[in-house]
Amino acid sequence: MTREHLGVLDQKGFEFGSHSVTHPHLTLISEKNAFQEIRDSRMELQRLSKTPISSFAYPYGDYNAALVRMVQDVGYDAALTIREGNCSQDSDVHALPRKQVLKTPFIICLSLRGPL
Question: What is the pTM (predicted TM-score) of this model?
Answer without folding.
Answer: 0.80
